[in-house]
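Shift notes (night). Ran ATPase, V0 complex, subunit E1/e2 while the centrifuge was going.
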Amino acid sequence: MASILPVLFMFVVTAALMTVAALFTPKGPNQVTVRTALMLTLASCYLMWMVTYMAQLHPLIVPVHSVKA
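Came back to this:
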């Protein structure tokens, strides 16, 4: 049986990285744009990883094994 722990662990790591990106973005005229771009990038990468991981755990099409005699 698969575990939800890798998904939760990666969520915590992603949330921590997003917090770091929000807190340590250098000051300047484009601070909000850079912060938003970094946080959206991290969120998109996490979602792509999670969808791929979950699709491998629970495939929509079950593999069919051919039996050759």
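The chain has two helices and no strands. The chain has a mean pLDDT of 91.
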